[in-house]
Structure formats: C-alpha cells, structure tokens
Amino acid sequence: MEFRDLREWISQTEAMGELKTLKGCDWNLEIGAITELVMRREDGPAVLFDEIKDYPKGYRLLANSLSSRNRIGLTLNVPPGESKMDFVTAWRDRYKKIKPIPPKVVKDSPLFENVYEEKDIDLFKFPTPKWDEHDGGRYIGTGSIDITQDPDEGWINWGTYRVMIHDENTVGFYISPGKHGRIQRDKYLNTGRPCKMAMSFGHDPLVFLAGSIEVPYGVPEYEFIGGVRDEALEVIKGEYSGLTIPANAEIVVEGDVIFDAPRSEGPFGEWTGYYASAERHEPIVKIKRLYHRNNPIILGSPPGRPPAELGWYRSYLRSALIWDEMEKAGVPDVKGVWLMVSGGSRLVLVVSIKQRYPGHAKQAAVVASQCHAGAYLGRYVIVVDDDIDPSVTDDVIWAMATRSDPATDIDIIRRCWSGPLDPIIQPGKKGLNSRAIIDACRPFEWMSEFPPVAESSREVLQATAKKWGKILFSGNGKA
Length: 479
Ligand SMILES: Cc1cc2nc3c(=O)[nH]c(=O)nc-3n(C[C@H](O)[C@H](O)[C@H](O)COP(=O)(O)O)c2cc1C
Ligand SMILES: [Mn+2]
What we know:
CATH topology of the domain at 98-295: Pnp Oxidase, Chain A
Helix content: 25-40%
CATH class of the domain at 98-295: Mainly Beta
Structural class: alpha+beta
Shape: globular
Radius of gyration: 23 Å
Number of strands: 21
Bound molecules: flavin mononucleotide, manganese (II) ion
Largest sheet: 9 strands, antiparallel
C-alpha cells in the first residue's frame, strides 16, 4: 500500500496530478459549492482547502477524494485500467481474495498531539463547512466514521453516518434503520444501558470507503481494511470509551450518547439528490474527549445531487458485487455490469450479456434487479448486448432507443424493496416501489436478421485511434 495516513494519500494524489489546493475559501457555502463543481465531473480533482476563512493556516479540509478511477485504484490498491469495466473486473478479482485481518493495537498515535477534556472541548475550532444553504447545520461528519460496539456480541462497527455540530461539545448524528450502527445503538436504547460512541472526522479515504460500503454484519470494518491492505491496520483503544479507533486519524471524539434529550437534526442532502428525509429529533452525543493531530484535516464527502463523489466509487464496487451475485445465481455470459452514477449508483442498472438462448436477457434483468446488492431502491434495469459497454451512457441509450420496442420490451415488477429516502414515495407511505425492466438486446428470435451496425470494425477504430488519436483529441493539434 502506498499510503499509511491521509497525508501520505494526499501526497500520492498530488504526485498523480489530481490534487488542487485552494486558499482563502469560506466554510460557509463556498467550500460546498466548489465541492459540487468538482464532483459533478468524471475524474474531477480532489481539493484540499487551506487558510479557510476565520481559521488558522493548517486547519484543512479535503473534499472529493474518491471520485476518480485513479484515486479509487490508489485507495484499494487495484490498477485503474483503461476503462470502467476494466476496473470493475479487477476489483471483482481482488475482492474475492480479501480475508479480514485483525487490527494491531498500538499505544501511540499523532492524535495525542492535542487532547482536550470536558469543558475545554470546542468543536468550532475546526473549519466545518455549512455545505449547502438548506442544510440544518454545519456537518463535520460526512467522510467520517461513527464507532460503536455491540453490547451483546462485542464486535465493533465503523459506519459512515452523518454528524452535525449542535454546540462546542455536542453533536447530533443520524443512522437509518437496519444499518449496523443503528442495530447496535438501539440495543443500548432498548435496555437502558449507557452507550459510548467515538467518531473520526478525518482519516485516509480507505477508512471512509470501508465505513460507507456494505461490509457484512459482524465484520468490523477495520478487519476488512486490513484485508484490503494485506496488513493489520493500526488502531488505538480510546481512553474514555475503550472503542477501537484508527491510529492514523486526524480528528477523533469520544462521548456518551444521550437518548432522552434528542435535538433537531437535518435536513441534509441525500444520495438520491433530494432532502427526502426531513428534519427530526435524533439522539445527541456529549463529547468527553477530543483528540487531534497538529494541523488537522477533515475528510469531507457531502452526498447530494448526482453525479456525486459517493456515486463514483460506489458504482465501481457495487457493480462488481452485482456481477458476482448474478454469476452465483447461474446467469451465464454476463459481460459487464454498471450502475449509472446519475442514478446515485442504484437507480439505473445496466447489464451487458452475450445472448445464448431465448429468455436469457429477461433472466439477467430479473436476477440483477432482485439480487441482494441490486435490490434496494432501484428503478430501471436495462439489458444490452455484449457489443455495448454498459458504462458508456450514449451507447446504452442508443441500444435502448434502437433495439427495444416499448410495447413488448418493458416489463414492470411491482412492490419491490424501497425505503423512506425514495423521492417518488409520498411521505408517510410504505417503502415499496416498482422496477422497469428494459430488454434492449436485439430480439433473440431474429437476431441474425437485425440490421448491421453502421460503423468501422473495432480493430480498425482501435488502430486508427492509436495512429491519429493523440493529434485529434489532445495537445495543440500538431503532429
Ligand atoms: C457520504 C456518505 C454519507 C452517508 N450518510 C449516512 C447517514 O447519515 N446515515 C446512514 O444511515 N447512512 C449513511 N450513509 C450510508 C452508510 O454509510 C452505508 O450504508 C454503510 O454501509 C453503513 O455501514 P454499516 O453497513 O456498517 O451499517 C452514507 C454514505 C456515504 C457515502
Ligand atoms: Mn458494518
């Protein structure tokens, strides 16, 4: 692995030419707007903000860390490849070999460079953005992890669940039902046992990535990270909570969860691109300890209208998972899977297959739409032939427009798995929606009579691009 903490990760990113450093930006809305501009573009740069308005030099924030294939590759130690499907394929291979590795508990960490207790704690010493004008507050926890321990089973979870500052030593957090942190939190709530919690607001992006993807129940994310790194992750035991905390973190708090004095939390933008869940009362954490490195760096990753940072890296990872699950379910000859980033890496799923028999396309679509990794909050599933790269939107839309006939090639599956974040469900109604399955493959029965495609062969195009592409598409146009 080429990095051991966020700072080394930033150096590597700078060396790849994918880092921009901006000085003098305002924490109030400007950092949020800049982050939106860069995350909307494919392979937009990571941005390191320094000398933020009202804050001392060195108190920094990194945004948009995981939205380029090069940087996702750096973070997961996977070669970025030439195309999206290359990366999905490489990650699929790598993922199968990952075995969780227990962490290495160490005594020392740069976190101990600055330690505050009780009334000396002031969360406003960090340049936490107000990301968007409609947000309910300043969100210090976006690329963060919330650390909790299961009171019965003992295992520790690191989950990315948003954190908003209420005052100098109080934060609010929101975990939706079913998430590991919520299951653990509710065990304390339901039995009246005191609940301690830690949170890390800055760390290398692999910690964030692990906190925000579906690492299986019962597997601590730090063991998954160890597996990805092929080496135990160094952690410390929190002095106040005893919880397992990344030793390489930048800013960490520990405290008590208070259930009986909830405060208003949200609204905050969701991955669908809306404020779908309104402001509500949520438990708070009274912070008892604050640790930070000298010149600390917040890792920021606000969700919001796609394409957003979380859509980019989760499309790669989730597409690989769906592909695996389709294979396990016995669907042959899947050639590619891609969740469009514009659908928040869930709502629009494209599968390409080499059609083998009648009904193959329908089988692929139904399995893709209902396998575990693809089932939650989907909408559209499009199946295309293997001459179409499912990650190239223009090609997918062209195939759909020319190879499907709406009257016969669209099926609806009703009453599927959705949830309160789904913007099409009326507030207060149950969490069910439907799937449209679009068979955009050439009709199987008369495939051989389908008009041939009007383009040069792939070999001719590749050879020509090799010869002339540099002059045509980059530089100053001179040979
Ligand atoms: C930037 C970002 C913000 C997120 N915010 C929340 C949140 O506020 N609440 C929540 O329940 N899930 C949130 N998620 C989704 C969870 O991180 C994700 O479902 C993860 O798998 C949860 O960890 P768990 O599997 O250990 O429960 C967010 C994800 C990302 C990428
Ligand atoms: Mn988990």
